Amino acid sequence: MQQPETYQNLTNHLKSALGILELDKNSQLYRDTTSICDYLAKPTFQIAVFGPFNYGKSTLLNALLGNRALPIDLVPTTGAAIYVNYGDELHAKITLKDGTEVSEAGTDVLKRYAILDDNRQMRDDVAAVNVYCPHPFLKTGVELLDLPGTNDRQEQDNLVRDKLLSADLVVQVLDARKLMTLGEREHLRDWLSDRQINTVVFVANFLNLLEPDDQKQVYNRLLFVAESFRSNLPNNISNIYRVDALPALRARLKGDVAAAQTTGIAAFESALQSIVASQQEQLAVKLPRIEAIATKICQSLRAKSETVAAEIAAAQQKQKDRIEIKQKAEKLILKGFQASVSDFEIWLYQPTLLRLYQSEMALSLQQGTFDAWKTKFERDVLKQQETIAEWVNKACEFFDREQPIALLTSFPPSPQIALPEPPPAPAKKSIDSEVTPVAIATGLGWLLGGPMGAAVVGGASYILKKRTGYEKPPESSEAYLNQVTEICSEAAKNYLIGFSIDTFLMLQHYKEIAAKVICFQDSKEPLNMNVQQYQLQLVNNLVENLAAELDRIKIR
Fold it and tell me: Which candidate, 489, 424, 416, 417, places its Cα nearest to that of 456?
């Protein structure tokens, strides 16, 4: 018989697949795969006996063993899968799910742990039930498996279905009085044929209760069904047997060999021994069902691979779209930033700045309202800066960058104007008749009422004592006012030109700073798909390894 080590790699691959697929433990594929792994790990040749309640399964096994090893009754009794192995003396061992073991001589302990309770429920604390019997057939490495009835509860049906997949040989017990019910035909299809369990031995019980003509008719019907389930049997071995289980058990217990011979038990036992001898060294029984489950696992793995690949492709497309959006955003923001900077530069261009503000600033100097003008001028500058800053802020937000230093604009100090000496003071009449009208007419009425008015009227102020480049005092008030206007205009020009030069320099420096912000730099960064890429590689490798391992097993 193939050793469990032969299938160790295959078992490891299948268990890895279960982990990768994250299957529900109650799903049929998970349970079938687990059963196959258990099957491949078994060192024994297992014969599983199944059939509906009250068909005589346990009685058949007891007759085969010549001992009342298994519980039998007229109500559904077997509530767990009972494994029967060789032992020097008859005894039973119960293993509970918490690890506790209960071992006793004989099999009375089965009545407490392995049969259905009053509510016809299986115990939920039992992990395994083992019976050990001193029978020579078991000593050859054979393990018998007595399964619960299949027509009682869904929970028991699920258990039977799982266990059949891990059996080397399946024995189906039939009631000759109601041969091949709808449920039994469904089991043949769903539990056996569809899962490549192609070798089944059929045992017809209660045939002795039928008339001879009926017996022949039943046998012929059974022959038609059984022909599809003998693919791995030698040609000289039948897979249909008549065994009158209860008479056989009684004869065996009494030691009546002749009576036992008439029940068919001896022929059935001989056939089992021949089948075991012919199949223990063959892979033909295992391989079809292994391939059937492995194929389903590979299909699920390929579906998983397609899903993961699709997720990776979607993430890559999303990354590509994100990059394209940010690249477009970079162009739009840069274009807007450059336009706003260009507008500011045009505004700072000296001829433009002088045209817009020189006369207004000069007038504010003449009227002593320079602070008010400067406040308005600063607002205009701030408006220009805000337009530029808006694009930088958008870049910081869109590209997740830190805010750079702000565009800081410095303003020249307030102009210090040195006025010329006023014309000689005329008679009071001339002042009233000449200076005042001229001052008012030229919009410089502040000269008579403001701080400078004291200089004009009083004749002295520290600023008036400075030389202005005019060696000769003006001859009239009008000439004086013209000189004042010219001086203020020149002061405004110098102020605005200085502001333009300094701000241009600051703006060029800020453009270099902003260029580092308005730049999408992560377009070449690798997509962080390490987990998905690793999962995809793992799934694909596992599919290849499963296929290679199956090929290796086939050629052994």
Answer: 424
Determine the 3-state secondary structure of 477 from DSSP: helix
**Residue 366 CB-half CA count within 13 A:** 23
Comparing CA positions, the residue from 444, 533, 522, 451 lying closest to residue 480 is 444
pLDDT tens readout for residues 75-103: 445 567 899 999 999 999 999 989 899 99
Question: Which secondary-structure segment (H or E) carries 305?
Answer: helix 286-348
Residue 85's SS3 state is strand
Measure the CA–CA gap between 310 and 308, rounded to whole angstroms. 5
Residues 332-353: tens digit of each pLDDT: 999 999 999 999 999 999 999 9
Instruction: Give the span between the Cα atoms of 73 and 58, in whole angstroms.
Output: 9
Q: How far is residue 226's CA from residue 400's CA, in Å, rounded to a whole number?
A: 74
Q: Which residues of the chain have pLDDT under 50?
A: 74-76, 429-470, 525
203 - beta bridge partners? 173, 241
Helix (H) or strand (E) holding 297: helix 286-348
SS3 (DSSP) at 472: coil
